[in-house]
C-alpha cells in the first residue's frame, strides 16, 4: 500500500481588512442611522468571512469576503465604535 502525504506549511501571514465606506478615516460623524460599512479584505490563502461588532453590543455578518459590506448598523446617540473583523481560510473552524 502507498500513502502520499503532502505537507502544507502553516499560514503565518495575517489577513488584512480595510473600511472604505462611509470613510477610510478613523472617525465619521453622521445624523443618520443606520450606517452601512463596506471595504476590502485579503489573505494569502483566502478570506473565509467578514463580520462586524460594535461597543454597544451589536454584531453580525457582512456580505462578501474580498469585497464586503454590512447591512445597516443601527446607531444610538453618542459615539459608537464599530469594528470590521475577518477570518482567513486556514484558521476557519
* Low confidence ranges: none
The number of strands is 6
User: Separation of termini?
Assistant: 32 Å
User: What gyration radius follows from the Cα positions, in whole Å?
Assistant: 17 Å
- Which term fits the overall shape? elongated
Main-sheet strand order equals 1-2-5
Largest sheet descriptor: 3 strands, antiparallel
Number of helices: 0
- Level of helix content? under 10%
Mean pLDDT: 87
- Provide the succession of SSEs: EEEEEE
Percent range for β-strand residues: 25-35%
SS-derived structural category: mainly beta
Protein topology:
Layout: E1 16-21, E2 38-42, E3 47-54, E4 59-61, E5 67-69, E6 82-88
Antiparallel strand pairs: 1-2, 2-5, 3-4, 3-6
Structural write-up:
There is one protein chain. Helix content is 0%, strand content 34%. By secondary structure, the protein is mostly beta strands. A three-stranded antiparallel beta sheet has the order 1-2-5, with no helix packed on it. The protein has a three-stranded antiparallel beta sheet with strand order 4-3-6, with no helix packed on it. The model has no long low-confidence stretch (mean pLDDT 87).
Main attributes of the structure:
single chain; mainly beta; 3-stranded antiparallel beta sheet
Summarize the structure.
The chain is mostly beta strands. It contains no helices and six strands.
Amino acid at each position: 500500500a502507498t500513502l502520499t502525504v503532502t505537507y502544507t506549511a502553516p499560514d503565518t501571514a495575517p489577513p488584512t481588512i480595510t473600511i472604505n465606506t462611509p470613510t477610510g478615516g478613523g472617525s465619521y460623524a453622521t445624523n443618520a442611522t443606520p450606517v452601512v460599512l463596506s471595504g476590502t479584505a485579503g489573505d494569502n490563502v483566502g478570506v473565509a468571512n467578514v463580520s462586524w461588532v460594535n461597543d454597544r453590543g451589536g454584531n453580525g455578518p457582512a456580505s462578501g469576503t474580498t469585497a464586503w459590506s454590512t447591512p445597516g448598523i443601527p446607531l444610538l446617540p453618542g459615539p459608537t465604535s464599530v469594528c470590521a473583523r475577518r477570518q482567513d481560510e486556514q484558521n476557519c473552524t
